[in-house]
Design goal:
globular; alpha/beta; two-stranded antiparallel sheet; about 180 residues
Length: about 180
């Protein structure tokens, strides 16, 4: 039943994508997306240690890995023009609001071409989670795996405890809080 629901939602998203994309920031061309995805690594395996580099945030702040050492960290790659991200991101925002006081750390990573596109999208939707624009330097240190959106949860030890590519349902995003213990 859950598999059928996912397939139905995915198909509906694909049908709605052309009109939705037209109203958003200019996405990369299909050829650019295909080239990036071809070169992208697979999702990291559970148990893999990931080193998240320091990065400037779109709000002017800075993410420093030391700030989240010993905490559960959710990494979430998204784009303002991605229809599947548009479905998942509100639930990521709710997770952030509900769990940050419990110690959840989050770094969302926009793959938009321009920082202004990411800022405008966040402002329009009232998102306040920590967000960085993926720069070539950041991508070199921590490349985005295949797919979009991408959600990776690092445990308190910095190792992957969950990795997901593509759309997640609201209850799946909410369930990420289980990693807080």
């Amino acid at each position: 039943m859950q598999r059928q629901r996912r397939l139905w939602i995915t198909a509906a998203g694909l049908l709605a994508a052309p009109s939705w994309l037209h109203a958003q920031a200019t996405p990369p061309s299909a050829a650019e997306i295909a080239a990036r995805e071809k070169a992208a690594p697979p999702l990291p395996a559970v148990g893999t240690a990931l080193a998240v580099p320091a990065v400037d945030l779109v709000d002017g702040g800075r993410f420093e890995p030391e700030q989240v050492r010993g905490r559960v960290l959710v990494l979430y790659w998204w784009a303002s023009w991605c229809p599947f991200c548009a479905l998942v991101t509100p639930h990521v925002a709710k997770l952030w609001q509900a769990q940050r006081e419990r110690g959840l750390a989050m770094l969302t990573l926009s793959i938009d071409r321009k920082v202004d596109d990411a800022r405008a999208y966040m402002r329009k939707h009232g998102y306040d989670f920590p967000t960085a624009l993926v720069t070539p330097e950041f991508h070199k240190a921590l490349p985005k795996p295949k797919g979009l959106p991408i959600t990776i949860v690092l445990g308190r030890d910095g190792k992957v405890v969950q990795a997901e590519a593509g759309q997640m349902f609201p209850e799946d995003v909410e369930a990420l809080a289980r990693h807080l213990g």
